[in-house]
Amino acid sequence: MTVKKITDRISWVGAIDWDRRLFDELIPLPDGTTYNSYLVKGNEETALIDTVDPTKKETLFNNLMNAGVEKLDYVVVNHGEQDHSGTLPSLLEKYPECRIVTNSKAEDILTEHLELDEARFKIIGDKDQIDLGGTTLEFGLIPWVHWPDTQYTLAIEEKTLFTCDFLGHHYATEQLFNNDKCHYENSAKRYFAEIMMPFKSRARKNLQKIKEIEHDVDVIAPSHGPLHNQPEQIIGYYEKWTSDKLENKVIIPYVSMHGSTEIMVQHLTNALTERDIEVKPMHITNTDIGDIAKELVDTATIIIGSPTVLGGAHPKALYIAYLANALKAKANYASIIGSYGWGSKIVDQIADTVSSLNLELIEPKIIKGKPTKKDLKLIEEMAEKIKEKHKNDPKIN
Known about the structure:
- One of its GO terms (molecular function) is FMN binding.
- It comes from Methanonatronarchaeum thermophilum.
- With 397 residues, this protein is an alpha/beta fold.
- The protein has two domains: 4-229, Ribonuclease Z/Hydroxyacylglutathione hydrolase-like (Metallo-beta-lactamase, Chain A, 4-Layer Sandwich), CATH 3.60.15.10; 250-390, 3-Layer(aba) Sandwich (Rossmann fold).
- Helix content is 34%, strand content 24%.
- It contains twelve helices and 24 strands.
- It has helices spanning 57-66, 82-85, 88-94, 104-114, 181-196, 200-213, 231-241, 260-274, 289-295, 315-326, 346-353, 373-391, and strands at residues 4-5, 10-12, 15-17, 22-23, 27-28, 33-35, 38-41, 46-49, 74-76, 99-102, 121-123, 129-131, 136-141, 151-155, 160-164, 219-222, 247-254, 278-283, 299-305, 308-309, 312-313, 333-340, 360-361, 365-368.
- A seven-stranded mixed sheet has the order 1-2-7-8-9-10-11. Strands 17, 18, 19, 22, 23 and 24 form a six-stranded parallel sheet that branches. The chain has a five-stranded mixed sheet with strand order 12-13-14-15-16, with no helix packed on it.
- The longest helix has 19 residues, at 373-391.
- The chain is elongated, with a radius of gyration of 24 Å.
- The model has no long low-confidence stretch (mean pLDDT 95).
């Protein structure tokens, strides 16, 4: 692993986790991730911005050794989750003079989860500063960009902004900066869906704080993924993703046991396409849940397709409904299609599961057995209703 120079006084000293494929035992990581840690030097003092996941402790310590760090004055904790802070106990033991700089919310989390000595903390508030000697660190509180404790740190003279999880993405690469716009947008959008979307109103509010200092920033350095040397790009994406605007798009997460539901999905897909609506059928069994989450960021309508299992919805279809509810999907409309053998409570189950979303339910189409021509006609009527809803909704582009 190597130390990577960002500016004359700032270096990346983190770790790349090429092989990690799951986060929180829930979130798939098809591209791995990085744990970004940054060394900031002043004329008199030195600070580390965040640490790394405990599994990569030795990588961080080797990088600090290679960077010639014999004394560390501060470690700034922008967020207390352990993939950024879990190495703190070992770091404080290695550098006994080092103090933890963070806010009071993060202090509570760190003392409770890592049993750290309160005497090691220096608590900061909004716009507080620390002068390292020609390098000034300024802090800003941006709570609830997925945890209540998040803050940013701005290295004023170096025009570099450290935003921790905010504006990041899970993507393992040796490249310091983003240089693949297409892949980068997809990766960042997926990360937003999984991490930030449940808190999008808070994210929108905190994004305004970032925009207030955007003109003073050349580089945004998050704690996961490559850095942004065109800050306006990632800020623009977040403005769109945190807004109420939706795309003229339908996603159809579905599962089919014996083919009847799949026939309905295919017919609905064709009917929507004929009406110039973007549509994405997504077979739940074969699709990464992160990809489904990504589509929930801007899709206007969610149609869940499910057969009936023991009188209820297929468990995998129910899980997607739970996921959409938990992530607070932005969609304005929803419906359900599926088939049954002798009876079904699919609609009640799925509708209850997404009850906290502000969705208008378009009349579901649940049929008995294999769909007939008459049933498929009803599917076409559903497509026509969706077209009219989208056409008259001012939030849909």
